[in-house]
Structure formats: structure tokens, C-alpha cells
Amino acid sequence: MSLLGHRQCRLAVGVDVGGTWVRVAALADGRRVGSVALRTPPVPELATFLPSVWRRRRWTGRVDTLVVAARGVWLPRERRTLKRALRGLARRVLVIADVQAAWHATHDGGAGVLVLAGTGSIVLGRDARGRWARAGGLGPLLGDEGSAFWIGRAWLRARAAAPAQRRLAVRRDAVPAIAALAPRVVARARRGDRLAARIVREAQAHLADQAREVTRALGLRGAVPVGGAGSVMGDRWFAAGVRRALARAGVKVRWRAARGAPVDAAARLAATLADGDGRRDRA
User: What is the pTM (predicted TM-score) of this model?
Assistant: First the structure.
């Protein structure tokens, strides 16, 4: 939608910094009035990248609240560093982890758990009091169990010849290249390939174990609202296997579908900041 009719409106802006794309959504009076999708710059360069977006869209001086969801900012000091760099872009700025935006895209407040499995993996939960807990999310060297990278690596170890393994391992984009094998492994598993099925079952079990860890850490009882995000969990057959693994692990689940993209959730969160409702996501 054009901004021409909203030149005097104050804006609430959400930014989702993904691995490939940075997505920006602007709301005025609760309605989306602008959006941008561009190739992602390194997170430290956001302080120069976003002002250029503001200038091109004629948003300079009009952004009231800004929520930036970025990777690599889980620790409070990391969020504070990025927040300081973004001062001046809006009257109020909130920096959250990208997985928190994905959580908000699935859960409308309250308590719930998000199982995110794409190139990497993490499970994030929040209770009704606003306490967060996570499991996984340690990256390809130390974790990412159940992720596309984990699935692709397990397949390579079991099936690929050493030269093929080396060719992928020494690529500059080794992690996404190996993760790109996951859809084929999942498809093989669905068709009955025994090795692929074993790998996929182990991936699903890892994700279910992490979700159980989060539910226990938060003391969530009864049927726990759980949703999925990321390319791997976006496969309905794979996600159904995670739900079955959760049931075997003793976790009762009430499955929730996402209500929109993470950038939309970030924009909605920005719109609540004027009322002070975003405090639970602060560092």
C-alpha cells in the first residue's frame, strides 16, 4: 500500500533480519502502509543500512517505535549494543532475537513454545509471566540438532563418498550447502528409504527433546501451545513426526499455526510499545 495518504501519520516499524533477506514492515493506525525486502547486510551494518531505507521511503523523522529482530543478539549486552547503534531511527527502539519474532508470529501473548528448524535450530518458550527459556540454538559447531544442516550432515556421513564430503566441507558456504540436502533426505524418508527415515526420526526426536526441556524449565502444564517455524518444520509431514515424538516424550500439545511472518509480528510489537506492552521482551 502506498504511503501517500499517510504522510503525517506516525509509524510503527518492524524489521526482521534473516540470513538472506532483511524485511521491513511499517504500520500506521494498525494498518500496513509500507514494506521492504532487501538482501541482508551484516548485522553491524544495520546502523547505516536502515537510515538509507528510511530516506528512500521518506520515513525519516516519522518512525515512532522500531522493533528489530536480529540473529546473534540473544545476550542482553548484544541487544544493548545494537540498540545504541540504532538510536535516532525512532523515538523508541527495541531489539529482540529473530526467534522471538518468530515466536510472536505464532503465539498471541500468553504461554507457548516455538520449535524452529531451518538451516539451524532452536526451541524457544515463554510462560504466562513473560519468562523466556530456550534449548539449542548453539550453531552448527556445537548444536543445531534436528536442523536442515544436521540432517544433511548425517546423510553425508552415512552415504557420501569421502571426495564428495570434502568438496562440500571446504566450500565457503558449506553450512547452507549441506543444509540444502535436507529436503531430499526428508522426501526419501517419506518414500520409505530406511536410512533417511532413521535420520529424520532422530532429527524429530532431538527437536521434541528440546521442546520438552523448555516446557519443564517453564513449568508449563496441560496441553502446551506449540508451533513450528523454519523450512524444515514447514514440511507438514516432518512437523507431524515432531508432534508424535512430543507425545512419546510425554508432552501434550495444542498445535498452533503462525498468524503471519516474523516481520509482521515485529511490526505489531512495535505498535504496542507506545502503551508499554513490549516490556517483557526487553533485555
Answer: 0.81
